[in-house]
Amino acid sequence: MSNAMLEIIDLKVEIDGKKILKGVNLVVPQGEVHAIMGRNGSGKSTLSYAIAGRAGYEITGGDVLLDGKSIIDMEPDERAAAGLFLAFQYPIEIPGVSTMTFLKSAMNAQRKARDEKELTTPEFMKAVRDAADDLSVDKTMLKRALNVGFSGGEKKRAEVLQMALLSPKMCVLDETDSGLDIDALKVVSEGVNKMRSPKRSLLVITHYQRLLDYIVPDQVHVFSDGQIVESGGKELALMLESKGYAAFDNTAA
Amino acid sequence: MNKVSGNNFGSAEQELVKQLQGSGDELALNMLKKHGLPTRRLEAYHYTDLKLLLSKVPQLAEKNQASSKKIDAAIDIPGALQIVLENGSAPELPALPNNIAVSKNSGSSLKERDDIIVALNRSLVTKSLHFKFSGTTDQVLHLDWRNSAINDSAAHVLASVSLELEPGATATIIETFSGSNHEHLANFGSAIIIGNGASLTHIVVDLTSKKSTRLHTIEYEIGANTKLHNLLINSGSKLSRTQVFSNFLGEGAVGEYSGLNLVGDGQHCDITLDTIHAVPNTISNQKFKVVAKNSAKAIFQGRISVKPIAQKTDAKMMVQGLMLSEGAQILNKPELEIFADDVQCGHGSTCGELDEDTLFYLMSRGIAREDASSMLIRAFVQELLDPISDEGVNKALSDIVEKWLENTQDSVV
Questions:
Q1: Integer CA distances (angstroms), B31 to B2, B25, B111, B121, B390, in order
Q2: Contact check, Cβ <8 Å, A97/B364
């Protein structure tokens, strides 16, 4: 087995004193795509936010290692610079901040944090143009304020565009399929699949098996009541689809 | 029993009385003797209790030689027609284009009004410049007011200007305020007449030292079918009060009033706007924003008066505040006084902090918290700068915001 890109060790998280994650153990090796499936309220999104470092998610135990280094004491921007990317379930609309300004700030902030040379404007423009072409992102979208007035599909495509430009080592995709029709799902999945590489790992969080038809995972983990209760190959997703989550609640109990 | 005589006058009031006694004008003197400086009991000064806040009045600037120490302009505007007014007077005027005529009038250009700031200006200003615009003036007129020390001490600067647009004229005028780092007290007046069919952009920028006090009265008399765009930016002064009296006198006029208070570190910044719709079919849009940090206090008082005859008035007022620290105060007081029945008038006010979810989103992309905050503050104020079409002016104003943000990054507590 290759090196672990993401290693979650007995992670326990509370929000406002309420225990949400109750000891999550997960290893995503370099170059692999793993999926986490679970019903609403099982703690899947909490896991993604806890990995990304959102305020208010109190880690009461365990650790999260990115490429062998603990990230739980880092600020969200430091985690991003270390190579983590979270694609949001609901990307935030930010009126008054142009998409291009945002992209340039984000790319250069990460470069700066890694002691790399900042991009010049022509270099930046070229990178965005190439990535947008690659992902069939409409250029008029880039001229608007960040996510403002974007359709559900456009928002998710913008997330994938950001992911492509920031080129992270570890991508966490939180319910990327939510709010997408079949066509949009295909387009977004194709974008995500282009990100697959032997050096990059992905963790795809979803509650429908459907997304995994397009983004085929190496491993599937079933999440229930703040824990991973079952892990297996991609066929596990199909089993879930036929039996429902209830079957796995029993194994957890 | 406590406000008849000057017995309980503070040192500021005593000094003002002394200065007024030499002026030969009784009005302000009587007003002051009778009421003293306004306190919070006077509604118009409810949030800016001058008696409490104005502790000292420095020596009168006029008749004294200003220090030869050079003071920088608040901002530089490339290509603008810059007129430097040191302690209220311009020793020499640059060559002006044919469509701007300038003359010197005696006394203040402000009209008589039941207000101590105006009364002081009228009593103590001995002469003022009068600019008259005809046709279209492409070049921006930059009145560059600078407070200068006298014998290395603070000065009480009083000055006024009158700006008149003849019918059909178009002009952009920016007044900026800067000064040496002394506890100056400045009292400025800008009397503006906009002739029928004229179009004026009038921008006022306060970047005076954070030790100084700045009182500024702006009057607009707005003719028929005119366009007025006003923008006030306050980032300087320890204590400032900008009072705008705007009067619609002709039908079909549109007034856009806007302002941005960028305040911190114990600053007290008051914008008081009084708009009178005295004729039918006029529009006023008012949009004011505040970004406040540390122990700053920012005040907006806005009154819209619609006279009985002023049917079809369309007046809107919006004030939005952004608090960067818990110690900051943002006080908004809207007043609508409507005596006509076929009008559209409304006001709104919001106040909040930077949104944590939005900050997290930006940070999750690698942008540090301070930079993410700056992006959001920039986005918040941008709406006010966007309509300023002159590139040089727009850039200069954006730079003020950038500079403020730079200082903010180090100092929010």
A1: 15, 11, 16, 13, 43
A2: no
Interface test with A, best of B320, B355, B365, B382 (most A CBs within 10 A): B365
Q: Is the pLDDT of residue B129 over 50?
A: yes
Q: What pLDDT, on a 0 to 100 scale, did the predictor assign at position B410?
A: 63
- End-to-end distance of chain B based on CA atoms, in angstroms? 44
Q: Per-residue pLDDT averaged across B96-117, rounded?
A: 94
Residue type, B105: N
User: Which of A79, A105, A113 is facing B375, going by the closest CB pair?
Assistant: A105
**pLDDT tens track for B374-391:** 999 999 999 999 999 999
Instruction: Take residue B305 and report the two structure tokens written for it.
Output: 């008066």
pLDDT digits (tens, 9 = 90+) for A163-178: 999 999 999 999 988 8
Q: Which of A94, A101, A113 sits opposite B366 (nearest CB)?
A: A113
Q: Chain B partners of A109 at a C-beta cutoff of 8 Å?
A: 365-368, 371
**Position of tokens 């609901």?**
A90
- B363 vs A77, A96, A162: nearest CB: A77
Which residue out of B354, B358, B363 would a mutagenesis test of the A interface target, given it has the greatest number of A Cβ atoms within 10 Å? Answer: B363
**Is the Cβ of B369 closer than 8 Å to some Cβ of chain A?**
yes
> Given 3-state DSSP classes, what are the helix, strand and coil percentages for chain B, each rounded to the nearest 5?
20, 40, 40
For residue A223, which phi and psi values (nearest 5 degrees)? -110, 130
How confident is the model at residue B2, as a pLDDT?
40
Q: How far is CA B276 from the centre of its chain?
A: 18
Residue A36 pLDDT: 95
CB contact under 8 A, B362 and A110: no
Give Cβ neighbours of residue B13 (< 8 Å, ≥ 6 apart).
B6, B32, B36, B37, B51
- Tell me the C-alpha distance between B92 and B347, whole Å: 45
Q: Which residues of chain A have pLDDT under 50?
A: 1, 252-253
3-class DSSP assignment, residue B84: strand
Determine the Cα–Cα distance for residues A202 and B359; give it in Å rounded to an integer. Answer: 24
CB-based contact, B365 to chain A, within 8 Å: yes
For B328-378, write each residue's pLDDT tens digit: 999 999 999 999 999 999 999 999 999 999 999 999 999 999 999 999 999
The answer to whether B368 contacts chain A (CB < 8 Å) is yes
- Top mean pLDDT of B58-62, B87-91, B198-202 is at B198-202
Residue B379 contacts A where some CB pair is shorter than 8 Å: yes
pLDDT band at B69 (very low <50, low <70, confident <90, very high): confident
Q: Using a CB–CB cutoff of 8 Å, tell me whether A115 touches chain B.
A: no
* pLDDT tops 70 at residue B3: no
* CB spacing of A166 vs B376 below 8 angstroms: no
Residue B67, pLDDT > 70, answer no
